[in-house]
Amino acid sequence: MITENAINDKKDFQLIVITGLSGGGKTRAVRYLEDLGYFCVDNFLPAFIVPFVDLISSKFKKVALVVDARGGAFFAELSGSLHQLKEKGWLYKLLFLDASDEMLVARFSETRRRHPLMKEEMTLLESINKERCLLREIHDQSDNIINTSNLAPEQLKKRITTLFVEHEVRDASMIISIISFGYRYGIPMDADLVFDVRFLPNPHYIDALRELNGLNKEVQDFVLGKSVTQEFLKKFSGFISYLVPHYQKEGKSSLTVAIGCTGGRHRSVAISHELCKYLQNLNSHIIERHRDLEKDEARYKQKDPL
After folding, report:
1. Quick one: 132 and 213 in the same domain?
2. C-alpha 126: how far from its chain's center?
3. With a threshold of 0.70, does the pTM exceed it?
4. Do 19 and 131 contact (CB within 8 A), yes or no?
5. Does the structure show a pLDDT above 90 at 217?
6. 14: which strand partners?
7. Which of 74, 182, 250, 298 is the most buried (most CB within 10 A)?
């Protein structure tokens, strides 16, 4: 189960730096990693890698960055930035996406996109060869190289999963994301199922609990200690257990369940956190996320908030 809690141990932080030829499949690769719970950034400048990792590691356990020739002259700083990461004790994997010249030409012709290194006097093939020269050093430093010339999208997804995702995730039959949210800020657009838990007693109106959130034991005890909550959890977990195999039968590989309360701070957070525990017996990978947990902190410090 993935949570967005602070990562205190550098050994628990996973960074994947993705690079390679334009048209080699980097966009697909980062999309697959994002679906598997990675925080992903495309077209990242190498000079910012070290300060970015120092910052992002306090919130996310898994991060993937795409760094390639689109960075222009800044791309030359990649090797130095990776060396700085090692000196500071950060672990990372360098993934290189490659493809044959023939396949790259075909892909650019199909999409009608301009190669990032192409100039007026250059042909597409000359641009590809120039990029190969630019990337030769980083290619040789890469931990993993995937040639996508003859790989279908699903085959590339399988390779990415095999290389970088934990054993328990690879074996999981479905990825289930449980997201808490506040109706005040809108329903998550990517939700497959939405459940409203505003029928539960609200800690918001108890002075001792208002400034806390659903990850605090006091709030959890208040919300989960009610018989209506326990009955809901049992029925909900049974409902999801019933749905998952039917979704799988239709080819669905991920399910996003949104749990909402008024502000997304107390009830929805406590319920989402507990639901993840209930669903651990399924052959699925559970991702826990609290979208609105830290929003509008001032509201909860007022004596009589609206």
Report:
1. no
2. 36
3. no
4. no
5. yes
6. 62
7. 182
